[in-house]
Amino acid sequence: MSHLTDGQIHAYLDGSVEALDGATLVEARSHIADCDDCNARLEAARLVRDEAVSLLGTAVPSSFSPPPFEELERRAAREDSDTASETRTGRSSVGGRNAASGRLFRRPGSLAWAASLTVALTAGWLARGTVGTGMVDRPAVVAPSESIALQDKQEVRLFSADSLSELKEGRNAQAAREPEFYAATEAELEEDGADRWRGYRAAMDEVAPETAGEETAPADDRPAPVAEEIDARRLEMGNREQVAQPEPQREAAKMARRDLAGRPPADLGVIEGPADWQPVRREQAEALLGGALKTVEGLPVLSVYARAAGAPPEVWTAQQLASGHQLNLRQTPLGEDRFGDLEEGRNAIERDESAADPISEMEARPQQRQQAYYETLESLVLDGFLIEARAPLSPDSLRVLLSRLRD
Amino acid sequence: MPTDWAALYESMYSDLVRFLYRKVWDAQRAEDLAQETFVRALRHDPEKPRAWVFTVASNLARDEARTAMRHRRHLKLIRAEMEADPPASPAPSESVEREERSATVRLALDALSERDREVLLLWDGGLSYAEIAEQTGLSAGAIGTTLSRARNRLVTAYNEQEQRNVASD
User: Fold this and answer.
1) Domain-located, residue B137
2) Is residue A19 part of a domain?
3) Which of A174, A279, A264 is nearest to A232 (CA)?
4) Do B143 and A19 touch (CB under 8 A)?
5) How far apart are CA A308 and CA A305, in angstroms?
6) Which letter does DSSP use for residue A225 in this model?
7) pTM for the full model?
8) How many C-beta atoms lie closer than 10 Å to residue A380's C-beta?
9) Which one has a higher pLDDT value, A389 or A115?
């Protein structure tokens, strides 16, 4: 038998008989016993392997504590239930979690930005003959939503900026005029997510006890939603109704809401925060952060989500861009270490190039290559907070927007 | 035969956290990702659970690392700004030495090619040559060669980094 290769020697050391690559274990052992050269290489390889193992052994967490297995089982069952519920109601999973690809957060869609832009332009071109001609007595809403199947099994619902901004303009007046509508919506939402709210409330009480007694909450355990949140959830309810109800009932519900709102309901996409985060009011988010929530002045706030558990606290905010797309902000305090002593108000905007994967990785994961082109990530430090912004804009445009961050 | 996930969880959890920690370099994140991986595994009940778990964990870590990179870049930026007024150095202690050594190992791991690093970490995570081959697309015979190269490079890079650390002190 000829000398063993380095690969064979390491396979032999590791006891991986099947990987000896042609040599049998007996042959290898016999050869090493008779060959001084291979024997010496084996000992050298053993030293290297043991040193590598030792080095890797230092790169471990100092301690960790696995949760009980039953807790993970409950979580898996809950997520299964959520998925089944979404399937039944036909809710779109905008930027949804894809188990196979291992996404952690619900992102506002990678290809979705490009796809929605394309369809928006097409729909706008097709609708140009009706808008402004008096043919239809309704705002220039691109409706109903068009659903686009994407290769990442994501689906995006198209919506126009006009419809949302218009809805928000009349929001406060509607809330004052139609308290019963919001109460009814809240009652429906309660059935949908009572457990989630209770868990959220418990977590929030733990985090911000000083705010627990200040809420003028309904009789149940939930915090009163802010107008933006009501808006988003109301729209979500609208989408669910559209899919789940037979045609006559859907039309009746539409008409009822048309009467209440004074305008046809908009078919907007569901504005959801990262998975496993909870929607919060602005003041709750600020209590959690221990400071002011930063948002871009002049852009409507669609929703505010907080990670109720874990440290450091983080808050996710979605704002509406004029293009109809979302600007997502994640805000987290820098903490009490030395970075917290930085002079307040200092900006350190840095173009983040991490979204662009190496070429090899981009080839292996085409959906992320798309994301690298269609989203820009920026981060900055402001008033002791680290803020990450994500939007389908050029870096310069995003920086200009971020210069308008206000409390 | 159905997978005994409870037993697998007990036996694999620490290996998986270590594997993830060396990718995201944040203990809490590594635990979060490990738990997320097991939740997904419970929902999918894959045929080859060990390989599946490490594959999904690897994908999760890849996404997570992207986010962590942004934080790191900022911390670097801030550190550069604070050089004029450095804080008092902590007293030397065992934990500090351990952290320094861990940081050096991290730099040494970063010096490896992505494939070498992946194979090395998977092997350290407890996967067999056959399982590593299946996950990485390499032949089983190539795993030994890859491991040999990765181990040598890790040790060499670590020693070189140590020398640089000593020279800079």
Assistant:
1) yes
2) yes
3) A279
4) yes
5) 9
6) P
7) 0.43
8) 21
9) A389
Beta pairing partners, A331: A315, A387
Of B44, B105, B140, the CB nearest to A19: B140
For A354, left (φ over 0), alpha (ψ -120 to 50), or beta? alpha
- Residue A42's closest chain B neighbor by CA? B148
Kindly report the average pLDDT of chain A as a whole number.
59
- Residue A57 amino acid letter: G
Q: How many domains does chain A have?
A: 2
Give the number of domains in chain B: 2
For residue B92, the 8-state DSSP code is: P
Q: How far apart are CA B134 and CA A19, in angstroms?
A: 13
How far is Cα B30 from Cα A324, in angstroms, rounded to an integer?
A: 36
Q: What is the 3-state secondary structure (H, E, C) of B6-71?
A: HHHHHHHHHHHHHHHHHHHCCHHHHHHHHHHHHHHHHHHCCCCHHHHHHHHHHHHHHHHHHHHHHH
Alpha carbons A356 and A368: distance in angstroms, whole number: 9
Q: Residue B148's closest CA among A58, A36, A35, A19?
A: A19
Q: How far apart are CA A232 and CA A220, in angstroms?
A: 20
Tokens encoding B90 = 């902590």
- Yes or no, beta carbons of A18 and B66 under 8 Å apart: no
Which among A19, A99, A342 has the least Cβ separation from residue B129? A19
Sign of CA dihedral A33, A37, A42, A43: positive
Same domain, A28 and A124: no
Are residues B112 and B81 both part of a single domain? no
The residue written with tokens 């700004």 in the block is B81
In a domain, A193, yes or no: yes
- Which residues 6+ apart lie within 8 Å of A84 measured at CB? none
Cross-chain Cβ contact A58/B9 below 8 Å? no
Closest chain B C-alpha to A189 CA, distance in angstroms: 26
Whether residue B24 contacts residue B68, with contact meaning beta carbons closer than 8 Å, is answered with yes
Which percentage of chain A shows pLDDT scores above 70?
39
Tokens found for residue B129: 């040559």
**What per-residue string of b and e applies to A127-142 under the rule 16 or more CB within 10 Å gives b?**
eeeeeeeeeeeeebbb
Residues in chain B, pLDDT under 50: 82-91
Instruction: Give the domain range for residue A339.
Output: 107-406
Give residue B33's domain range: 1-87
| Contact indicator for B132, B143 with CB cutoff of 8 Å | yes
Gap between the Cα atoms of B48 and A238, Å rounded: 42
Give the whole-angstrom CA distance, residue A25 versus residue B52. Answer: 29
Distance (Å) from the C-alpha of residue B158 to the closest C-alpha of chain A? 8
pLDDT on residue B108: 93
Q: Do A38 and A179 belong together in one domain? A: no
- More confidently predicted of A344 and A49: A49
**pLDDT at residue A399 in the model:** 77
Q: Which of A5, A18, A100 sits opposite B129 (nearest CB)?
A: A18
- Domain co-membership, B81 together with B2: yes
Contacts of A67 in chain B (CB under 8 A): 35
Q: Is residue B11 part of a domain?
A: yes
B146 three-state secondary structure? helix
Task: Give residue A402's pLDDT.
Answer: 84
Taking residues A108-120, report their average pLDDT.
44
Asked which of B63, B87, B111 is the last residue of a domain, the reply is B87
Q: Minimal Cα–Cα distance from A340 to chain B, Å?
A: 11
